[in-house]
Amino acid sequence: MIAGDSRRERKKAQTRAAIQEAALELFVSQGYRETTIAQIAARADVATRTVTLHFPAKEDLLFADDPFAPESLARCLHERKSDTFAVLRDWMHTTMRALDASDLEQEPDPAQLWRRRALRAQLLMEDDDLRGRARAGYRDLELLVAKGIGSDIGLPADALIPRLAAVTVVAGLREIYVTREGRAKAQSAASELSGLVDQVLAFAEAGVRNAGM
C-alpha cells in the first residue's frame, strides 16, 4: 500500500471511529431510539450522508466492527494445536491486547475503549430489540465453540454438553461488562478484564469436566 492509500485508510478509520463515539455518547445520554442520524452527524462534525455511508443502518453503529468476530475465532480454531478452551483463552487475551495497542493510536488512555464497550453492553441490555439482535449475532460464536468442545470430548456439536458449555462461554463473556466486577475493571486497560475472562472459561471448563467428559 502506497503512502497516500495508507493515509486515506487511516482517515477513513478515524472518521468511522468518531461517528461511533458520537453515536454512543448520544445513545447513552438521550436513548437509542430518541437519537437521530442527523444528531449523530452533528456531534461527529460530519455530513449525514457520511454517517449512512459508513453505517447504512442505525443499529450498525453498535454492531459493526466487533473485534471478537466469529471469523477471527474460526481461523484460530482451524489452526489450533491445543484444546478449545486454551484456544479461546489465547484468542480473547490476544484480541484484547491488540485492542489496547490500536486504541493508543487514537486515545492515550486505553481504558476509554473498555468504558465504551461497557456502555455499549449496557445499551444492549436495556433494549429488547437490540438485545435480541445481539443474541442472534452471538449464535455463530456459540456454534464454533460447541463444535470445538464437542470435538475435544468426542461428541457432536449439537449434543447437550458441548451446547451448554458454548452457551455458558459466550453468555459469560458477554455478561462481563455488566457485572459489578466488570464495571469496576472497565475503568482500566484490557489486562484488568483478562482475569474475568479466565474465570468465565474456567467455570465452563469445570462444567464439562464435572459432567464426566
From TrEMBL:
Protein name per UniProt: Helix-turn-helix domain-containing protein
Species the sequence originates in: Amycolatopsis heterodermiae
Pfam families from the UniProt entry: TetR_C_14, TetR_N
UniProt keyword terms in alphabetical order: DNA-binding, Transcription, Transcription regulation
PROSITE patterns in the cross-refs: HTH_TETR_1 (PS01081), HTH_TETR_2 (PS50977)
Residue span(s) of domain HTH tetR-type: 13-73
Taxonomic lineage: Bacteria, Bacillati, Actinomycetota, Actinomycetes, Pseudonocardiales
InterPro entries, A to Z: DNA-bd_HTH_TetR-type_CS (IPR023772), Homeodomain-like_sf (IPR009057), HTH-type_TetR-like_transc_reg (IPR050109), HTH_TetR (IPR001647), MftR_C (IPR041347)
Chain residues forming the annotated DNA-binding region: 36-55
Parts of the chain that traverse the membrane: none
